[in-house]
């Protein structure tokens, strides 16, 4: 069943959930109403290098001493500075990943929706139960990581997802 916009009768394409003072507030809006509400309306498939550039510029232009430290980072392999990477969104060599790791990790996690390790693809001919088992394994690994990072809010959410998944609801 398709949802309709909360403000008009068009199909809702933007869905948000906010928790304010313990109260869950859901919004379902069409593109036009979402733009009127100030919600970001995504453009059609923004290239990853543009997303990375925008993210790096946004998170490294705070003006504090941390920004100055990032700009002074230099790759030992190719001599690229972090500020040059920030402008071009291109790393110079494999060593850049190691040398810029503290600054790149949050960027990579966000760009890959929390995933930092390649897990491969599942062949189309694979059975549905195999796919479900892989998804369950991935959820359990994320739960384990969340607990080790003491991110208990995420851990609780993942625990609930695993429970629903094991009951066959997902």
**Main β-sheet: number of strands, strand sense, barrel status?**
2 strands, antiparallel
The number of helices is 8
Radius of gyration: 20 Å
Helicity range:
40-55%
Overall 3D geometry? extended
Which class best fits the helix and strand makeup?
mainly alpha
Mean pLDDT across residues: 78
Across the major sheet, the strand order is 1-2
Distance between the termini: 17 Å
Number of strands: 2
Q: What's the number of domains?
A: 3
Q: Which regions have little confidence, pLDDT < 50, spanning 5+ residues?
A: 63-71
Kindly estimate the percentage of residues that lie in beta strands according to DSSP. 5-15%
Descriptive notes:
The protein is mainly α. The protein folds into 3 domains: 1-42, no CATH class; 48-111, no CATH class; 128-166. Helix content is 51%, strand content 8%. The chain is built from 8 helices and 2 strands, in the order ββαααααααα. It has helices at 31-37, 48-60, 65-71, 82-88, 95-99, 101-111, 128-148, 152-166, and strands spanning 14-20, 23-29. It has a two-stranded antiparallel ribbon with strand order 1-2. Helix 7 packs antiparallel against helix 8. It is extended, with a radius of gyration of 20 Å. It starts with 13 loop residues before the first strand and ends with a helix. Mean pLDDT is 78; it is low at 63-71.
